[in-house]
Amino acid sequence: MAGNLEGWAYRDGLPAPPNRRYLERMLNSHQWPVEHERQAVLAIDLDSFKPVNDTYGHAMGDRVLAAAARGIAMTVDERGMLTRLGGDEFIAVIQLPPIGDHREFARSIAEEIRDAMEKVFVVDGISVDIGCSVGLALVPDDATSLAGAVVVADAALYEAKRAGRNRVIENAPQLASEAYGSEDEDHSRWLVSST
Question: Which of 37, 43, 80, 95 is disulfide-compatible with 135, CB 3.0–4.6 A?
Fold first, then answer.
């Protein structure tokens, strides 16, 4: 019973990935897989989700959100882990292969996610266009910790939204990398300041 309650604590009541509390716990406990030294963090935000809630109501919004989460999770699949920060924001941590162009590998997954969200979602007979923007950061290239990479990826996501949405951005402001790139950084800081 306690295990079931703990599982519910890391879900948001939707058939969706684990939530922000789960991500925070994993970052603070260093329980991420360590079979590869390099990892990518993708910060994902749906582009046109608010109009769905405004037009069709929150029940419809929840169904669309669940469908989108399934699409993102299927794209990430066994290459990493997906968590939902809240609302229509997600974080994916991708295990990178030991050799090859790591940035290109991570960007290809980000583009797959963007492409998956470009399709028309049909929920309860209603067609909905959403799309998404993605910010990308690599460990250890852009930040020396996963927590730092989350903040750098979030800054890149903000740039993607500002630049017109429906795109992948990997060039986050240097300030984010400098402020949160240290292994000594408190992993929960970005959880408080993340937008």
Answer: 43
